[in-house]
């Protein structure tokens, strides 16, 4: 009898039969509060009626039309619609199927556009599991151990992550100073500007532990990118489409006057409520440097996925899901901080919008992977599905659908408190 490979071992015990909103149901009819959302994908909740309707309609019209062979209406419409929500200037779009492919596409484009070999990535970043994406990933050795040699040309610089420097008593200002000085050193000693195609960075570290960046850091990256002709590639795969309580994760850090805009932006996950579609956006003069045939594949911008994405973007706007993510995120962080106050092993509650991490440490301040795993397991037993993240998987993360309501947030916090 065939079985799933060990790499596909599930993080939760649920065998789902169907989903509705923030709930999943199993074969026994038990309801589970799903605060994993397919790792931040089902942004409008499971099976939102408008998304289901749009996908069903499209299935009856056209399922697939390979996008370098024919154009189809959902792709035309999605391109227009994304133009309304993307940062100004990012007017040329390329589509693929997964976040990893988007990261690969950004990497290839950055090299093609600059003719330079290196990519500088930031410690704790996650960009996916294909060989190129894994090469740019530094959020855990499990993503790259055992299949070297990886892609050359990746250089790592620190991300301003206060939790890594807690022992030193450093706050955000100091870690940001440190990160930018180290970046200058990297440009001086490891990857000269003439060899550096792009900085590749997430606005909020995802797999790396749900650590938000900050305005000064991104302004510093933009300044150095401008000075040296390096492209700023922002990975919004997990942070995009309202997840952080603003439309894009980087919107938190653009600054009042400083319009920190990416040169290349990746997107995926929350765009289509579960249908596989991803892409990159860039200024036309950059995108034009990628010649036909050098990017793309058979399935990119599948017609049904495009239709589901269009419906998803409509629902995000109509139901004010960005504002809801902001409000419900604040509510959840406040509740989690109250729980943390009684429990010394929780050393940090952080995040933006509905991308929230709770960090566990032992009595010596060391990452407490075992407790994070035990809490996740106990919460699942009590009907709340959660994931972990962080370099030691010492962080329990909350990433529910953006449609989550006040009561459901209270329920999740109560179950979590019981599990803790
Ligand atoms: N980039 C970021 C920031 C991610 O969070 C992820 C997935 O979690 C990826 C890229 C890779 O996406 P995928 O798993 O769809 O390949």
UniProtKB/TrEMBL annotation:
GO terms for molecular function: (S)-3-amino-2-methylpropionate transaminase activity; 4-aminobutyrate:2-oxoglutarate transaminase activity; identical protein binding; pyridoxal phosphate binding. Keywords: Aminotransferase, Pyridoxal phosphate, Transferase. InterPro entries: Aminotrans_3, Class-III_PLP-dep_AT, PyrdxlP-dep_Trfase, PyrdxlP-dep_Trfase_major, PyrdxlP-dep_Trfase_small. Pathway: Amino-acid degradation; 4-aminobutanoate degradation. It comes from the Bacteria. It catalyses: (S)-3-amino-2-methylpropanoate + 2-oxoglutarate = 2-methyl-3-oxopropanoate + L-glutamate; 4-aminobutanoate + 2-oxoglutarate = succinate semialdehyde + L-glutamate. SUPFAM superfamilies: PLP-dependent transferases (SSF53383). Its EC number is 2.6.1.19, 2.6.1.22. Its cofactor is pyridoxal 5'-phosphate. It holds the Pfam family Aminotran_3. PANTHER family: AMINOTRANSFERASE CLASS III. Belongs to the class-III pyridoxal-phosphate-dependent aminotransferase family. This is (S)-3-amino-2-methylpropionate transaminase. It comes from Nesterenkonia salmonea.
């Amino acid at each position: 009898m065939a079985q799933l490979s060990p790499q596909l071992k599930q993080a939760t015990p649920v065998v789902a039969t169907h989903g509705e909103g923030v709930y999943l149901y199993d074969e026994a009819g038990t309801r589970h509060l799903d605060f994993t959302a397919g790792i931040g994908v089902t942004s409008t909740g499971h099976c939102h009626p408008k998304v289901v309707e749009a996908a069903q309609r499209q299935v009856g019209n056209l399922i697939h039309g390979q996008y370098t062979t024919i154009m189809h209406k959902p792709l035309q419409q999605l391109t227009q619609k994304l133009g309304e929500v993307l940062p100004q200037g990012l007017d040329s779009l390329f589509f693929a199927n997964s976040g990893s492919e988007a990261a690969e596409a950004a990497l290839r484009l950055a090299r093609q556009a600059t003719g330079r070999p290196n990519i500088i990535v930031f410690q704790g970043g996650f960009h996916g599991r294909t060989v190129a994406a894994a090469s740019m990933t530094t959020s855990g050795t499990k993503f790259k151990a055992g299949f070297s040699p990886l892609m050359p040309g990746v250089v790592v610089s620190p991300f301003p992550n206060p939790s890594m420097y807690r022992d030193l008593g450093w706050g955000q200002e100091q870690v940001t100073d440190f990160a930018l000085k180290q970046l200058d050193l990297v440009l001086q000693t490891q990857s000269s500007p003439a060899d550096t195609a792009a900085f590749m960075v997430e606005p909020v570290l995802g797999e790396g532990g749900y650590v938000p960046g900050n305005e000064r850091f991104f302004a510093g990256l933009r300044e150095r990118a401008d000075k040296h002709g390096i492209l700023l590639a922002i990975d919004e795969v997990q942070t995009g489409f309202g997840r952080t309580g603003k439309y894009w994760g980087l919107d938190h850090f653009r600054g009042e006057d400083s319009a920190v805009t990416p040169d290349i932006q990746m997107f995926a996950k929350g765009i289509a409520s579960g249908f596989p579609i991803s892409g990159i956006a860039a200024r036309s003069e950059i995108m034009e440097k990628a010649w036909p045939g050098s990017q793309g594949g058979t399935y990119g911008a599948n017609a049904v996925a495009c239709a589901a994405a269009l419906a998803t973007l409509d629902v995000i706007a109509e139901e004010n899901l960005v504002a809801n993510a902001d409000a419900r995120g604040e509510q959840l962080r406040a509740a989690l901080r109250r729980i943390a106050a009684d429990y010394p092993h929780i050393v940090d509650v952080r995040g933006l919008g509905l991308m929230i991490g709770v960090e566990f440490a032992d009595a010596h301040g060391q990452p407490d992977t075992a407790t994070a795993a035990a809490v996740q397991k106990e919460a699942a037993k009590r009907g709340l599905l959660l994931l972990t993240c962080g370099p030691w998987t010492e962080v329990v993360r909350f990433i529910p659908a953006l449609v989550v309501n006040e009561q459901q947030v209270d329920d999740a916090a109560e179950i979590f408190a019981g599990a803790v």
